[in-house]
Design a protein that fits this description.
Elements (H helix, E strand, L loop, with lengths): L8 E4 L6 E2 L1 H13 L18 H12 L5 H18 L2 E2 L3 H7 L4 E5 L4 H10 L9 E3 L12 H9 L7 E5 L2 H10 L2 E5 L12 E3 L5 H8 L2
């Protein structure tokens, strides 16, 4: 069976794909930005989904003309976000069962979030621990999605070519990054109105992933 018919690995995004976390990211970011004189709504942050924090702050700094140092921002945002991880964030109901079903495949995790955040999430959600043969986070990359670097590194971490991997993503920038890397892409529609049309296959639930894997490599 050739690689297009049977992906050798699945690379999962984290936020918005496996865990219901994006509202809490945005809330903590809005609160922190206010302290630096930048007044935004959670909806205003939607275009920055999938980007690293340093990249988001650099772009906001350029747009609003306010200094937004990463360390200073984190000093305000991180305690709030840690509280949300521990008390508010939830694993999507379809995520743990999906990971069980695909446990015979090689799995990787590719997240634009920082390593401390990924580690905190793993402590909070034991269902994710030990699942991934390779992980890539913000500390491992120089370029944010939609640049393909994060998925190229994830595939390399598995010792595979990008075209041998299928990426599962919920954000437009993530889908584009995976396409540009040369991976097959399954877009999961977690929120209305996001343009995931660049994905090879669209699903509404991770319960549909096995069928999508076959379709995306068919």
């Amino acid at each position: 069976m050739d690689n297009r018919q049977s992906p050798k690995a699945i690379i999962f995004d984290l936020d918005g794909t496996l865990i219901d976390s994006e509202p809490w990211h945005k809330r903590s970011e809005v609160e922190a930005l206010r302290g630096f004189g930048v007044e935004l709504t959670e909806q205003d942050l939607e275009p920055y989904m999938g980007t690293t924090l340093p990249d988001m702050l650099a772009r906001l700094e350029k747009t609003y003309g306010k200094p937004l140092p990463v360390n200073g921002f984190l000093a305000v945002q991180r305690p709030s976000l840690v509280g949300f991880i521990r008390q508010e964030m939830r694993l999507y109901a379809d995520a743990a069962a999906c990971l069980d079903r695909v446990s015979g495949r090689r799995l990787a995790l590719a997240t634009s979030s920082m390593r401390w955040y990924m580690d905190e999430v793993f402590r909070r959600f034991s269902e994710l621990k030990g699942r991934f043969e390779a992980t890539v986070c913000e500390a491992d990359i120089r370029h944010s999605k939609p640049h393909p670097e994060i998925f190229l590194k994830a595939a390399a971490g598995l010792g595979l070519r990008p075209e041998q991997c299928t990426v599962v993503e919920d954000s437009p920038s993530g889908v584009l990054a995976a396409r540009r890397a040369g991976c097959r892409v399954v877009g999961i529609e977690r929120a209305p109105g996001r343009d995931l049309s660049a994905a090879h296959v669209l699903i509404r639930s991770l319960n549909e992933l096995e069928a999508a894997l076959a379709a995306s490599h068919g």
